[in-house]
Amino acid sequence: MLPPHRAARLAGLGTTIFTEMTALAARTGAINLGQGFPDSDGPGEVIEAGVAALRGGENQYAPLPGVPALREAVREHQLRHYGLNPEDLLITFGATEAIAAALLGLCDPGDGVLVLEPYYDSYSACISFAGAERLTVTLRPPDFALEAEALRAAIERGGGRVRVLLLNSPHNPTGRVLDRSELELIAAACVEHDLICISDEVYEHLVYEGEHIPPATLPGMAERTLTISSVGKSFSFTGWKIGWCSGPAELVAATRTVKQYLTFAGGTPLQHAAAAALRLNPVHLHTLRDNLRARRDELCAGLSAAGLSPITPAGTYFVNADVGGDAAEFCRTLPERCGVVAIPTGAFYDDQAAASTLVRFAFCKRAEVIAEASRRLASLA
Ligand SMILES: Cc1ncc(COP(=O)(O)O)c(C=O)c1O
Question: pLDDT per residue over 345-354, tens digit each?
């Protein structure tokens, strides 16, 4: 029934690797370190704020820009953590909707969009929905550094059509936290080529070494950067899908224009709860970060004991390990061999040769789950 070109296009988008690997974990009963979601809830008082909003009649459409309490909390958050005072902001259904609506609102068909690869899988799909072209800047193991030459070459490949640089730091799936000199390269390229920067910062509070520097804080960038984040990773509420974007009025307005026809506005009680999360004492963020750091170290030790070579991440909740052979095959057989599911990092690269032996493991699980997964992995040796 579908014309062949359409069927082929949809097949090209495929299903996300996460869906596949989560199904594999369910089928085999293995520990799922494939998909990055925590297996315990965020702070109880945030849940109570959600319950109070549900019981208190906050159950109808939210205003399109978001409920005022959450808008105010996001504004305070940007100011308190980074000294940013954005012209406008918008509440979205997770960072995912902000990314999609921004790309659809800001790109014309044929525009070039620079992305660091490996990249989060929704980026390529949404760039394609916008009819734009993905131009990758490859981060290579083991250090995943951003190289000036790779950035310059990607801009050149765009042949004057590059319009957006879609950035993600702390970076999924590598765990890299871009340093100031790398961000300065990015800022220089954006200013020189008059690019819009869409900055996905969902792991902003999961930094174990170094610091998260929002690109919007660099000279010349506040006026061209749309900053995106959400409550999912910072507060362990990935299922709530409450996110936001902030920045220059024109960029936020473009995103809002598309968002109103994608979903309009909802999740009203959870928006109230997200406001409570952002207003928590920052000690909650620090505790989560410190717990995750301990799990990172335990999982890295398990991977080393298994004879693999983990690349210790400075941020996010993912660690990549070199398995010394074909990563896709390694992941296919891992559940049978030791009862763990992980993801071949190559799934996030266009350049398949760049990371053919790398596997990504998530460490955002309860301490006892990470301990058991590490024990199982160590048995591979
Ligand atoms: C880099 C990156 N951006 C965005 C998202 C999605 O964020 P949200 O759940 O808020 O839509 C994820 C989730 O894994 C991610 O890793």
Answer: 999 999 988 9
